[in-house]
Amino acid sequence: MPLAVVVVTYQSAEVVEDCLRSVDAALASIPDSRVVVVDNASTDDTVAIVARVAPHAQVVARTANDGFAAGVNAGFAAAPDCDVLVLNPDVRLDPDAVALLRAALSLPGTGIAVPRLTGPDGAPQLSLRRAPNPLRALGEAILGGPRAGRSAALGELVVDPIRYETAGTADWATGAAWLISREAREATGVLEERYFLYSEETEYMLRAGRRGHAVRYEPRARAVHLGGEQSTSPVLWSMATTNRVRMVRERNGRWAAFAMWWAVLLNELLRLPRGAKHRRAVGDLLRWRRWPQRPGAGAEPGWVCFSAQDWWYHNRAHSDFQLMRSMAAHRRVLVVNSIGMRMPTRGNSTHVSRRILRKLRSVAKFVRRPLPDFYVMSPLPLPFYGSPLLRKVNAVLVRVQVRAVALALGLRTPVIMVTIPTAWDVVAPMRRHRLVFNRSDRHSDFPEADRASIEALENQLLDHADHVVYVSHALMEEERARTGSRAYFLDHGVDVDHFTARPQHEWPDDVRAVPGPRIGFFGALDDFVVDFDLLERVAAELPDASLVLIGDATHPMERFDKYPNVHWLGFRPYDLIPAYGSAFDVAIMPWQDNDWIKRSNPIKLKEYLALGLPVVSTDFAELAHYTDRVRAARSHAEFVDALRRTLSDGPLLPPRALRTSVQPHSWQSRTRTLLTLTTT
């Protein structure tokens, strides 16, 4: 991945020269690297010094000083396809620091790498932190930061010397020097600019961690950090103090912020005799000013998504969840869990009792916030869509619940995205900025659906949506006469960073114990999409290979008991799926030959390819774009033969080429397309 070093300057003439010289030395062994200096309208000689010392550097000269976060965001924009090393101008890197940080960044699960910081005298700086909360703020107020830091519960500051001698992860770290991967940037978005200075890196690193991109400390990478302004300036000290409270309010809500405010105020009151900076902080805390509303609660509309899945028990890799998780980096999001398409009944549905029970458990959660600015609610529905009267009653019931939650979150006129057609009755009269129909499937083809009722709802959405986004070219062309210019093809994305091949020692024990070669499948084993007859034929005709099936099943799996080479491992969490998939020798997509599949575009195809796996699939329309990478079969016999050839000859392309082919297809890029589509 290309590397950009972003240095944000403001009145930095005295320090920037040494910083840039150290950067040049550190980049000497790094190919495909560049330097971006973002200047926040300095009035001294900063820009002239940069031009003299680093004539090769790209200078982004901003017209105003609106904060460090705004400067970093401008640097991100100047290096969209790069890993980015963010530096304060008062940092001096050791010559091997960048190479060591990049090695740390390559470790699985890592999104940000930070070095060991020392002062100009060589004294270590305590740069590692725990997530802030009221109890830790209270502990620091009473005991002082270093003493409270001895306890993880009572202190934010990490003080244990051993932690600074050994590599590991932290909740966040001092933002003087930090290297962030392109994947982590795409998943996390931009820095919150309202902080101006202080807490912006804290909030950003915590947000990255919540999205699965850990902060990793590498003690062998060293840098000198001059620092010191915050400790002497009353204005900066007060800004850092009040921003701690603001960040807790943004992340954890009003009551947590209230407790944090008291703890921080106590800290400053106890230290009033020590100087003007504490007096300034007390005054600003007592004159508390609320920030403007978050994006999504004001001029920029938030999003309400009526999902076809349930966050609490379905696979969270589904497209609506992936899109909305990425959207939460830009807007406030409310996901409404699936309100269903019919009540499960014996004779028409499988596992009836279990399905009703898990829906009731989901409803009991009502509203939760799994991620910052990402809320999930499970309304209580009455899924009787065959009766017009009961449909109206159900729509009113669900709409009242959704409106109440949306208003509480400040989502007064949101963009509404509908994935499940039964949401039409709910959203039809709702105030909205735009209506997006996420046409991921033709739900009226769902075997358990009341076909006539669901098709009527689909048609209403096709007629009234401002935008209809498709993942199937075939389905889009079938409905082109109805949707016209409102139709847009939005291909599925893939979490490339998550779906990275794991080394053998990281494979779970149960799949490692399965003898190879392994023919593998992960995902829902639903009988209306998976061809179980084909799976049985694979097991029978390839007895020397193991068939590994990972996922919840709606089909009786006892039929495979007579095949010792079939290993059904059941449901596994999304976080573990890449490790399981890495153990496959070939991945399969054994789909039914039905209308549902003909108009589908399985997400798992890109996930398999991101893992570098050879893929054998039954044929369907969207597979035409992957004929150079995937072996497609039109019959059971062809499928088994393709498996034999793949096990013998390997993939059509090398694993690295398979992975590279899907790297541009991130969920973040899909989200940016959605934002553009709904704001123009």
How is this fold's topology laid out?
Elements: E1 3-9, H1 16-26, E2 33-40, H2 46-53, E3 58-62, H3 68-78, E4 83-87, E5 91-93, H4 97-105, E6 110-118, E7 128-129, H5 134-143, H6 145-148, H7 161-165, E8 168-170, E9 172-173, E10 177-180, H8 182-188, H9 200-210, E11 214-225, H10 229-232, H11 234-252, H12 254-270, H13 276-286, E12 303-306, H14 319-327, E13 333-336, H15 352-365, E14 367-371, E15 374-377, H16 388-408, E16 415-418, H17 424-427, E17 434-439, H18 451-464, E18 467-470, H19 473-478, H20 480-483, E19 487-489, H21 509-512, E20 518-522, H22 532-541, E21 546-550, E22 566-570, H23 577-581, E23 586-589, H24 595-598, H25 604-610, E24 615-618, E25 630-633, H26 636-649, H27 655-662, H28 667-679
Parallel strand pairs: 1-2, 1-4, 2-3, 6-11, 12-13, 12-16, 13-15, 16-17, 17-18, 18-19, 20-21, 20-23, 21-22, 23-24, 24-25
Antiparallel strand pairs: 4-10, 5-11, 6-10, 7-9, 8-11, 14-15
